[in-house]
Design a protein that fits this description.
The complex is a heterodimer of chains A (225) and B (193). Chain A has helices spanning 8-16, 21-33, 35-57, 93-106, 193-198, and strands at residues 110-112, 119-127, 133-139, 144-152, 161-169, 174-181, 187-192, 201-208, 219-224. Chain A has 225 residues and is of the alpha+beta class. Chain A has a nine-stranded antiparallel β-sheet with strand order 1-7-4-3-2-9-8-5-6. In chain A, a hairpin with a 4-residue loop joins strand 5 and strand 6. In chain A, helix 1 (8-16) crosses helix 3 (35-57). The longest helix of chain A is centred in the first third of the chain and has 23 residues, at 35-57. Chain A is rod-shaped, with a radius of gyration of 30 Å. Chain B is built from nine helices and no strands. By secondary structure, chain B is mainly α. Chain B is globular, with a radius of gyration of 18 Å. The chains are: A alpha+beta (225), B mainly alpha (193).
């Protein structure tokens, strides 16, 4: 063991390459003969390795100006549903018809224009065909979900055609009609939260005004929630 | 600092405030992971889905498994879902390679480890944390740090030494540097076990 004094900070400086060459040689010579310092080195190396590994996957942090204070991490607020959402798949196709009929009869699906309060989910509408975009925002108390559908770059539907919103279960392709969607303004619906929980996507289709109420198979936008 | 074991036990017991604590602790690193894979436009939505799923399946969490590993297992699945929803041909091949298969699992594990390091750093005294962050996350030398913080070089060395020792103890306490069984990021299992 050499007679030089090796403080812990020199062990870290050695690993980081911060020591001058002469001092690095002294420290290494000392470590070769000092079991206590080698044990300390193991702890220092483990932490240095963890920090270096973290640095490799995380973005570099800009150095703040002297009067900036610590940089604030950008993290959007967490929005949890109002109640636990059991992810049960609803497989009975015939039941879908009954649900639609019941929902329409009881008025739980209604186009509305008042603004929802208290957002609990907000998901982007992605283009299925074309280049439009948009967003579906859901909010409200546990029993009823206020759903707002806003779109951008949705072209004019044209004469005899219209845009229509559906709840969709991508696993079964089961669909529930919501209502007409405006290409130029946000559209609001009030939907039973129990129904919302049974589906996992919102689909916007381009429909022909031909008396056929079924989905046209021309989807233009879709959002999964 | 509340260690991961205790936070995980609260989560498994259905304590909903534990989800918010997980979000505060791991959310920034999960967001960095998702930005890398699904892009900045969709990352925040996938982040929400990840933590909503964590909340929905909280009681399924096994406290013997790594908490950060479990969270990144969910995040990785949701990122893969997000890419699958995109039209064919619009997802770069390298992005897919970074997410799926063994490479994807290894990268998610690296992020989980980084999240544990970031969480532990947050519990150091401010001066030690800032010194280590400048050294490791801003690639600054000790001399640079002394100038930036307007303190003697010896103070920087001392803060780094004390911070490294304290951080090592926190990581050992959290199991971040201790092997745990059934700990790996994996395709099967996780939140839908």
């Amino acid at each position: 063991m050499s007679g030089v004094d090796v403080p812990t900070d020199d062990l870290l400086a050695l690993l980081r390459g911060d020591l001058a060459r002469a001092r690095a040689i002294e420290v290494v010579d000392h470590l070769r003969g000092c079991a206590d310092c080698r044990r300390d080195m193991v702890d220092v190396a483990a932490t240095h390795g963890s920090l270096t590994a973290a640095r490799r996957v995380l973005e570099p942090t800009p150095v703040p100006a002297a009067d900036d204070g610590p940089p604030a991490a950008h993290l959007p607020p967490l929005r949890l549903p109002a109640a636990r959402l059991p992810r049960r798949r609803w497989l009975a196709g015939a039941a879908a018809v009954a649900v639609v009929a019941t929902a329409l009869a009881s008025g739980v699906l209604m186009g509305r224009r008042d603004q929802p309060v208290g957002t609990v989910a907000s998901v982007p509408l992605q283009p299925v065909s074309g280049s439009a975009a948009g967003r579906v925002t859901m909010s409200g108390p546990a029993a009823t979900t206020a759903m707002t559908i806003s779109t951008q770059r949705l072209p004019d539907a044209g004469s005899g055609r219209y845009y229509y919103a559906w709840l969709l279960d991508p696993a079964t392709n089961k669909m529930l009609p919501l209502g007409l969607v405006s290409a130029t303004a946000a559209t609001h619906f009030e939907v039973s939260s129990a129904l919302v929980r049974r589906y996992h996507a919102v689909d916007i289709s381009l429909q022909s005004d031909d008396g056929n109420p079924a989905h046209s198979a021309t989807s233009v936008l879709r959002a999964t929630y | 600092m509340e260690d991961d074991d205790r936070l995980g036990q609260r989560l498994a017991a259905g304590d909903e405030s534990a989800v918010a604590d997980c979000y505060a602790r791991y959310g920034p690193t999960v967001l960095a992971y998702l930005r890398r894979h699904v892009g900045p436009d969709e990352a925040e939505d996938v982040l929400q889905r990840t933590f909503v799923e964590l909340w929905q399946h909280a009681r399924r969490y096994d406290p013997h498994r790594s908490l950060s590993g479990w969270i990144f297992t969910i995040a990785r699945r949701r990122a893969i879902d997000a890419l699958r929803r995109r039209r064919p041909g619009v997802v770069p091949l390298q992005t897919v390679r970074d997410l799926v298969g063994e490479d994807g699992r290894e990268l998610a594990e690296r992020f989980a480890w980084a999240a544990d390091v970031r969480a532990a750093l947050a519990h150091l005294p401010h001066a030690q944390r800032e010194t280590l962050e400048l050294a490791y996350f801003a690639d600054r030398t000790q001399t640079d740090i002394a100038r930036l913080m307007d303190v003697p070089l010896g103070t920087v060395k001392a803060r780094m030494a004390r911070g490294t020792k304290a951080l090592g103890a926190l990581l050992a306490q959290d199991g971040a540097m201790v092997a745990r069984g059934a700990h790996r990021i994996r395709d099967e299992g996780g939140a839908r076990e």
